[in-house]
Amino acid sequence: MTAAIEIDGLSKIYTKRNGPPVVAVDDLSLSIPAGQIFGFLGSNGAGKTTTIKMACGLVLPTKGSVRLHGHDVQRQRGQAMRQIGAVLEGTRNVYWRLTAWQNLLYFGRIKGVTGKGLKERAERLLSELDLWDRRNDPVRDFSRGMQQKVAIACALVADPPIVLLDEPTLGLDVQAGRTVKRWVEQLARQEGKTIVLTTHQMDLAESLCDRVAIMSQGKLVTNRPTSELLGLFRQEGYDLRFRGHLDAAIVARFDGFAAREENGHTILSGTISEHDQLYRLIEMAEMQGLELLGVAQAEPNLEEIFVELLDRAGKGEQHPEDRSNGRVPHSTMREVI
Amino acid sequence: MALAGTVVLNEIQKRIILLWGYKFNFFTQMFMVGFIFVGISFFMSGGKPDPELLASGLVGYLVWFFALAAISDMSWGIREETQTGTLEQMYMSPLPTGVLMLGRSIASLVVSIFMVGISAVVLVLVLGISFPITWAALPVFLLTMAGLYGFAFILGGATLVFKQVEALANLMQNTLLFLNGALLPVDRLPAWMEIFAKTLPTTQGIIVLRRVILDGQSLAQTWQDGSLVGLVINSAVYFVLGWFFFRWCENRARKLGALGQY
Q: Across the interface, do B89 and A107 touch by the CB < 8 Å criterion?
């Protein structure tokens, strides 16, 4: 699969007159495959927005490079900028005094698109976003969700193959958030665009992103397909549910498992790294005459994996994804037996 | 060329729409152009304005008003666009940023011509000022504007890096009003002040414009007496200096990550 975005040894260090230098991004290297929805996650100050802005050519890297479909952002700016459209967080991105239609035409022209093609593209985008009927209204009169749609439409007006969305659903109501989400999905799945989004909404990232990268203090903590990341943690945690109360002596035989009681049943929770180990435990339970009601595998969600990985990274662990590290994050259990 | 034309027309269209969106402010500004001129002329003439002196004052005053608009567009304008994020969107254009900035400047000038032009016509008619129109004034005016926008680029660049440059912009606007010969011909200033005044971006332009418009001199005459040469040098220095300083500031703002910061 070809890479839409290649980031190679990217660093950004802000030097300050009074005080130590601030490392915003630290030797970041990653490759984002074309046609995927890529989630950039991390807490505030992790370096996501700086990375996005370096990809947009708005911030100069201290070292390293960003290539968009093979075009270096610094050395081939014009070609590189034809590859992207971006909606940046915390600003309006469009002129609120202009109408939606005027904004699209204005930004289309400064992105080098003119004539009939521009008007057709603008009409299509506004129609798809249910804004056609209000195309002649000033953007300032729109709801927050509609304003965000106009900003996204402006980012797409030149039909770039890569779209960078910094917190695209921030501050939107549920319905507007869903519309934006559906549209992002459509752009990737039907039009083959590469979407890079930063978000603090883990459920959005989990449901939308093909791949996620988590950053912490300017460094890359992980960069994996979402399913793989979830699977990595899913394999670890199991709950064994037994009828009735289990004596401490019996619980002790399940090395590494913690017991708790719920509704008259005893649940043993622990880590099982191999399937054989699970079968040995089931056999042992049968030999002890214990009535096994079920086995459930931990269903981790991205939010807890995110918190856990950042926690591990914060402790300076070299490989925070290593399953042998501490607690298994999970919030829901999936019955496997 | 077609690209530059599209950029300029695009910017002009945007500016006119935005200007019309702030109609009240626009008409207030136009009224202010006239009101301040009438006020200053009244007080400086001891309550008896002389139409001949008014013509000389009007040339300087109108040039100063162009300066006011250019400085405002390049400092407050850039600051506002930094806040709204539209400046970052502009910098994500695949077109050369130089072309975009020149397009913006030309659009700013065209809109100012429209605004100042209407005010000037009203003043000439109401005050009965004799203000001969001559095509020879056009190249002098454009040269003056080139220097002025070069100067405005310096403030625009400073805005990109430092953000809060209102005090400096105000200082420059007022300095130009009092020292560029708009109110008082610079040869009446003390010698040291006259030298300083002539280094400012619009002073030499006003001197040459007065000679061409009011004294009926040809461009050749102003070239021979050195005033046009002085204007060419002054404007070239300001334009080149302003342009390179602005580009340097752009680069600096990118290094500081300040293009979208306020």
A: yes
Helix axes B166-179, B137-162, angle to 10 degrees: 150
Give the model confidence (pLDDT) of A191-235 as tens digits. 999 999 998 888 888 889 999 999 988 999 889 898 888 776 665
| pLDDT digit string, tens, across residues A263-287 | 889 999 888 877 788 888 888 888 8
ipTM at complex level:
0.88
- Quote the pLDDT of residue A318: 59
* B95 interface with A at CB cutoff 8 Å: yes
Task: Name the residue with tokens 């509609």.
Answer: A146
How many domains, chain B?
1
- B237 located within any domain: yes
* Domains within chain A, CATH numbers bracketed: 3-225 (3.40.50.300), 231-335 (3.30.70)
- pLDDT for position A129: 87
Closest CA–CA distance from residue B112 to any residue of chain A (Å): 20
pLDDT of residue A324: 45
Instruction: Tell whether A56 is within 8 A of chain B (Cβ).
Output: yes
Please count the other Cβ atoms lying within 10 Å of the Cβ belonging to residue A6.
Answer: 17
In which domain, by residue range, is B114 found? 2-256
Q: Which of A81, A88, A114 sits opposite B93 (nearest CB)?
A: A81
- The sign of the dihedral angle between the CA atoms of A310, A313, A319, A323 is negative
Give strand pairing partners of A99: A138
Kindly state whether residue B262 falls inside one of the protein's structural domains. no
- Top residue of A110, A111, A147 to mutate, by most chain B CBs within 10 Å, is A110
Is the model more confident about A189 or about A176? A189
Residue pLDDT, tens place only, B196-216? 999 999 999 999 999 999 999
Subunit contact A111:B21, Cβ cutoff 8 A: no
B130 touches chain A (CB under 8 A): no
Q: How many CB pairs under 8 A join A and B?
A: 100
Are A65 and A9 in contact by the 8 Å Cβ rule? The answer is yes
Closest in B88, B93, B255 to A111, CB measured: B93
Q: What is the largest CA-CA distance in chain B?
A: 57
A181 CB within 8 Å of a chain B CB:
no
Residue B181 inside a domain? The answer is yes
Facing B85 at nearest CB: one of A82, A91, A109: A91
Location of structure tokens 């009446």: B188
Give A316 to chain B, closest Cα distance, Å.
28
Q: Which of A13, A50, A58 to mutate to test the interface with B (most CBs of B within 10 A)?
A: A58
Please report whether residue B32 resides in a domain. Answer: yes
A58 and B254 in contact by Cβ < 8 A?
yes
The amino acid at A327? R
Distance (Å, whole) CA B242 – CA B172: 15
Q: Which residues of chain B does A103 touch, with a Cβ-Cβ cutoff of 8 Å?
A: none
Q: Is B111's pLDDT higher than 50?
A: yes
